[in-house]
Records
---
Amino acid sequence: MLFRSSAAVCGALAALAVFVTVARSEERGVHSSAVVNAASGDAIVGAASTYNPFKPGKEEGGPSTASGERYDPSVWAAAIKTSLRRKFGGVQFGARPKYALVEAVGKKVIVKINDVGPLRPGRIIDLNERTMRYFDPSLDLGVINDVKVSPLAGDYWVPGPVG
């Protein structure tokens, strides 16, 4: 009995340590610059816009993303242009999320690609509110040109700023 209790406490402490480490790395935006070297495939350059299906007047999307997750404006996420779905590993309902490195205005961030959409001409990615605010804190721009998006290999990335 004592052994089982000790094992349970030990397991809970280990899970807490992992959670705190991940939370701290996302909070501080701590990523090795080696992430740039992990980009798989060719980068795509185009315009980025923002979306939030819960705001009045938005015609695109809905509360559920292509991966089946609900849209969340507080995470580091984005929707890729439908024609780029295959390049970014499929982005399918119930599948593990895909990740990309997004670079613009001298900043870099890892985003979870959990949605696709028929974006307006010239646009390659729709960033959720948190991600767009990283590049454009006031959301005044609406569209950011010359954004570079590179698919990342693997599914172990922690979304957030690359520092």
---
Amino acid sequence: MSRLAARTLIAVVFWPSLFFFWFLGPFVFFLLSTTSSEVCPLLERREQFLEAANGTLPMLVLQNIIYAVPIICLVLWIRLLPDPARARHVVTCIKLFIAAAILGALWEYGSSLACDGYGQAFFSPLWRMTSYLSIVILVINIPLYVLVFSLGRGFSTRDDITEDGVVHPRQDGP
């Protein structure tokens, strides 16, 4: 398989996963991974709240695995096209992604535990503070999205095409 075909295949996975998982996915996964507001009024004891919140953990793990697809694509691209400058940016993306994933899981788990205000009396005020993590996650995700988008654009663009769209033949052969 040629490098161009491999790059194209990675791009075919990268762009849809970036759009659907990173831009649309958070809304869907947040709704699926928190305890629903219909269930919350039915919960009366601390154990019930813990059980409901712990039931969201598999969805949180699945969510972070699915969110990792664009990052995995960047790692594969950097293996195909080694470039120290881009490699540093990919490492930065990985670090930002890990931080966002951990904070996102804490935020969603804390939201399930607090259960839209119904479970607050059972748990530490620290769990209520997780509602502020969404602001921190946004501060981390904005540069992460911009960096991943620009790296994806750079990796999925052919090297033999200039800014004006002219295709230059390769000098080193096939």
